[in-house]
Amino acid sequence: MPAKPILQLGNPLLWERSRPVADPRAPAVQSLIQDLSDTLAEFRKRRGFGRGIAAPQIGVLERVIFVRIPGGFCGPLINPEVVWTSDRQIELWDDCFSFPDLMVRVRRAETVRVRYLDAEALSYQLEADGGLSELLQHEIDHLDGILATDRAIHSRTFATRAEWERAGWPKIDGAGLSSS
Q: What confidence tens digit (pLDDT) does each residue in 55-112 have?
């Protein structure tokens, strides 16, 4: 399937809360999973970064995210919910497919445990730390209508991607920094 257009910062759907998926095996959900996978792959091919995407970013208000970590976790998480977070917080630069030229400094839990369903409606728990923890928190926030801009540490902790790269800050997509 062709990649779907990604909603951009300012689109009111990005601040809406997504509804739970009743049947992960339903054809419409399977199609949504494929759309998310294709859109993530196309974005990564075109922009050179990206590890996850949430259904609201393509205009679908359902609780589905798709994650593809090179050499690691790959697949959909349906109705994901954070069931535990570590007390330790980390500060990092975050970015998003919905505002790919903007970087935001945020604070997130270092480790999380997430419960979710897969495409066959099987239940799993995933404990993640570092980059995967941050990514899961970022994508689950999308399902709750929360953007990284809403989590900015301060009004001065924003940078354009060009300025961020010019300053020589750490490369995204492997150092615990989001690319979704």
A: 999 999 999 999 999 888 899 999 999 999 999 999 998 999 999 999 999 999 999 9
Which of these, 132, 133, 115, lies nearest to 124 by C-alpha position?
A: 115
Q: Which residues are catalytic?
A: 139
Pairwise CA distance, residues 93 & 178, whole Å: 7
Angle at 110 between CA 13 and CA 82, to 5 degrees: 50
Q: Which two tokens stand for residue 79?
A: 């109705």
- Dihedral angle, C-alpha 96, 30, 26, 147, nearest 10 °: 0
**φ, ψ (nearest 5 deg) of residue 132:** -70, -40
Please state the φ and ψ torsions of residue 125, each to the nearest 5 degrees.
-125, 140
Q: What's the mean pLDDT when you consider all of the chain?
A: 92
Strands, DSSP E only, in the chain? 52-54, 64-68, 74-85, 89-96, 99-109, 111-117, 123-129, 158-160
d(CA 55, CA 72): 21
